[in-house]
UniProtKB/TrEMBL annotation:
InterPro entries cross-referenced by the UniProt entry: Stress-induced_KGG_rpt (IPR019626), Stress/Virulence-Domain (IPR052590)
Record field: compositional bias (Basic and acidic residues): 62-97
Compositionally biased residues, Polar residues: 1-12
Renumbered residue ranges of the record's region Disordered: 1-97
Organism phylogeny: Bacteria, Pseudomonadati, Pseudomonadota, Gammaproteobacteria, Lysobacterales
Compositional bias of kind Low complexity: 28-41
Name of the molecule in the record: Stress-induced protein
Pfam families: KGG
Domain of life: Bacteria
Amino acid sequence: MSSKNPGSSTSKRGFASMDEERQREIASEGGRAAHASGHAHQFTSEEARRAGQKGGEAVSANREHMAAIGRKGGEASHGRRGDTKSARSGEKNEEGD
């Protein structure tokens, strides 16, 4: 007889079938064990810099994504700038009267 649920195409066995919290616990134990035994990789500052640079290049290659980021930043800064202008123009009107 199959270990799968009747009518279901997924197994109740294995890492992927566990809930996320249990997966995290097991992965965390593995990470601690690797560090304790000296097998875990620890990035040097140069390796980390290169990895970040590579990721930044990959993201910035997507022009559509970069345009969306720029639009969002522009909307945020222009919104603040607009508030400042209205406050300044109000000051000018009060001084001019």
